[in-house]
Design goal:
globular; binds S-adenosylmethionine; alpha/beta; Rossmann fold; single chain; 7 helices
Length: 238
């Protein structure tokens, strides 16, 4: 099911305790007119109006409101994964603690192909955080499937590529996540038939992978152009 609306509104209409797993890739609020390098070209870091808020208290309030909505719709055995960088992840962690989530792991997604620096005055940015947290006492973890990936106990630093061009053939999203990242997350924390929700689905990566892996899926995005990309991707799953 896809919703083209504000996730805070949609979450308030969904049934309480009905979702097994949430992956949230919220705005990082990093659109500060800075510059970066993409495909060898200098580009603006600005993502769009959806990545801007007037002030810090608005950002905190927004984070609390969508996170509370997620907490309400998650089953007691459910878990939530939230991605971020230095720009947002410490606020995410603080709000998770306030709301009552318990952290299971903090994953480092180490990008094997990070963009080069534009100003050579610091280390290259090459990872993102993904906080994995639970609502209740017990949660599901597919230990065996994760073990098989490296033939060893999987650790919390994941070496994975950025999104490939072939995953962008139905349209471009400025912060699209790679399908391999969502595959790992969905297989680790859900079973076939479970309900997966993404409140900031963008181009629909979570829903595409959930559908391919025979999970039920709910995707929400307030921008019509991104919902259109998600619909196309979902209609063309092999
Ligand atoms: C970081 S992007 C997610 C990208 C996505 N993971 C993908 O693979 O394409 C965040 C998305 O959240 C959406 N968004 C921002 N604020 C929102 C809100 N209040 N409700 C719903 N969607 C929102 C934006 O339109 C944007 O597409």
């Amino acid at each position: 099911m896809l919703y083209n609306d504000d996730c805070i509104n949609v979450l308030s209409t969904l049934q309480e305790a009905s979702v097994d797993m949430i992956f949230a890739d919220p705005p990082y609020f990093l659109s500060n007119n800075g510059k970066s390098i993409s495909s060898g070209k200098v580009v603006s870091v600005n993502k769009g109006d959806w990545d801007k808020k007037e002030n810090y208290s608005d950002i905190l309030l927004f984070t609390k409101r969508w996170m509370q909505g997620c907490y309400r719709v998650l089953k007691n055995t459910g878990t939530i994964w939230v991605s971020g960088t230095k720009h947002n992840i410490f606020d995410v962690k603080r709000v998770m603690d306030e709301i009552g989530f318990s952290i299971i792991n903090i994953i480092i997604w180490k990008k094997i192909d990070p963009p080069p620096l534009i100003y050579k005055n610091k280390y290259r940015f090459s990872y993102e955080f993904i906080i994995w947290a639970k609502k209740g006492k017990y949660h599901y973890f597919n230990y065996d499937a994760m073990y098989k990936v490296d033939n060893n106990e999987m650790h919390d630093v994941w070496f994975l590529p950025s999104v490939s061009m072939s995953e962008k053939k139905y349209g471009r999203h400025p912060t699209q996540k790679p399908e391999c990242l969502l595959e790992r997350i969905i297989i680790a924390s859900t079973k076939e038939g479970d309900v997966v929700l993404d409140p900031f689905m963008g181009s629909g990566t979570t829903c595409v992978v959930a559908k391919r892996l025979n999970r039920k899926w709910i995707g929400i995005d307030k921008e019509r152009e991104f919902c259109a990309i998600a619909k196309l991707r979902l209609a063309n799953i092999l």
